[in-house]
């Protein structure tokens, strides 16, 4: 609900008429945000949006909760094609190429033209800007950003005779620890798996943790060439399959993304890989002491970044573009970014946000929140190409084929590369 709608609900007709007259030249903004109605993320976004609107009575912002990231990009493009796009939105950073290809967004360089603005554009972590820029221009501003991290149950580690303060630091250690952490009942049925890496939803993202650690990049910076059939990618997928098939430390078959935190809380798995965006959820709901660590290294340490960026839409008036920029600058400023991180667990996107007193106090009492920030030093851009949903869908299908055993990793990835080449040929 917009600020103006809330105000109107509490005013008499005469008072409302006077207020509307005083804001006759107000700028109206529609803001799409990828979250279902309700929950801490929605509450926090609404609070921040209302605060901005209260301080800027000439700007009316209607925050539209558009559902999942997939729902949000679909609704946004449908609205844009119909001539009624929002003025600004938070959409996946990897959808930047799609939004450019559809010609619906503008580079921030077009509106952020002052010296102060240009300084602001360089104030974010470089790791997040890798998925926010192309051809020397900035199309996205990091906000709801994340990386995958590893969570572990310290109680389960103690029970398995492992040091509860030392998570696995390498692939070999993850397998070794996983075997000690996997429990079976008298009938041989597994009651606790050592490890859980989700493979539904957007499996390519967590798989990219493995490929990064195996020192291979899935796509080029231009977004027009993939490397799905690289031997190092095949090796990473074979390792993922072997966690179940060979090592017996992970549930076989497709593992549900959404059910993973609950499975961790219920001790169905002692270690899980998931987004740092689950940090607050785990902190509030894990019935045991837990740790958070960077993903384990192999040939190198590393993980992809993830999450959403702010975008400004082309089909807006100059006044709307200027107001959108001002709102985005305000909500990504250190104090507001700190509030968002503390409420949700997403990574504050600028070093300055971590220097606020709120964040200093937060990490003092919850040092696990520092892990994702420290991992940024080793992070790579999330897989992003033109026709991104088609290309990531091709890779996801290949991962599923290998995980379910319908194809070998090598065959599945060879086919995926051929399909991706057909999709991206026109962009080279």
UniProtKB/TrEMBL annotation:
Domain of life: Bacteria
KW Signal (keyword) present: yes
UniProt KW keywords: Signal
Localization per Swiss-Prot or TrEMBL: Periplasm
Signal peptide positions (record): 1-26
Major subcellular site: periplasm
PANTHER family: ARABINOSE-BINDING PROTEIN-RELATED, DIACETYLCHITOBIOSE BINDING PROTEIN DASA
Name used for this protein in its record: ABC transporter substrate-binding protein
Organism listed in the record: Pacificispira spongiicola
């Amino acid at each position: 609900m917009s600020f103006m709608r809330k105000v109107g609900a509490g005013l008499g007709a005469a008072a409302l008429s006077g207020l509307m007259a005083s804001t006759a030249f107000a700028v109206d903004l529609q803001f799409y945000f990828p979250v279902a109605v309700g929950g801490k993320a929605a509450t926090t976004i609404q609070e921040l949006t209302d605060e901005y609107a209260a301080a800027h009575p000439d700007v009316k912002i209607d925050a539209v909760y558009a559902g999942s990231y997939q729902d949000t990009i679909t609704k946004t493009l449908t609205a844009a094609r119909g001539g009624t796009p929002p003025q600004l939105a938070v959409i996946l950073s990897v959808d930047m190429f799609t939004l450019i290809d559809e010609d619906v967004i503008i580079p921030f360089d077009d509106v952020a033209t002052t010296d102060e603005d240009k300084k602001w554009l360089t104030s974010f972590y470089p790791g997040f800007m890798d998925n926010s820029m192309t051809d020397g221009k900035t199309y996205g501003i990091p906000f709801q950003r994340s990386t995958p991290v590893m969570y572990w149950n310290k109680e389960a580690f103690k029970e398995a005779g492992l040091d509860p303060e030392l998570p696995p630091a390498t692939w070999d250690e993850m397998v070794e620890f996983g075997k000690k952490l996997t429990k079976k009942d008298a009938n041989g049925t597994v009651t606790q798996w050592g490890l859980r890496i989700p493979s539904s939803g957007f499996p390519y993202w967590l798989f990219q943790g493995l490929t990064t650690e195996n020192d291979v990049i899935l796509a080029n910076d231009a977004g027009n060439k993939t490397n799905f059939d690289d031997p190092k990618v095949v090796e990473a997928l074979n390792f993922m399959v072997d966690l179940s098939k060979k090592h017996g430390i992970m549930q076989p078959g497709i593992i549900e993304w959404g059910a993973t935190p609950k499975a961790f809380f219920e001790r169905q798995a002692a270690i899980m890989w998931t987004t740092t965006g689950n940090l607050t959820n785990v902190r509030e709901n894990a019935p045991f002491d837990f740790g958070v660590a960077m993903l384990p290294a192999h040939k190198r340490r590393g993980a992809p970044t993830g999450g959403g960026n702010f975008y400004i839409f082309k089909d807006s008036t100059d006044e709307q573009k200027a107001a959108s920029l001002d709102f985005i600058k305000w909500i990504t400023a250190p104090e507001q970014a700190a509030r968002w991180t503390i409420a949700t667990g997403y990574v504050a996107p600028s070093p300055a946000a971590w220097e606020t007193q709120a964040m200093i106090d937060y990490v003092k009492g919850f040092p696990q929140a520092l892990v994702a920030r420290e991992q940024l030093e080793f992070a790579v851009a999330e897989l992003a190409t033109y026709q991104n949903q088609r290309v990531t869908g091709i890779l996801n299908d290949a991962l599923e084929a290998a995980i379910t055993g319908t194809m070998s990793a090598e065959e599945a990835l060879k086919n995926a590369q051929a399909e991706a080449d057909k999709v991206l040929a026109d962009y080279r």
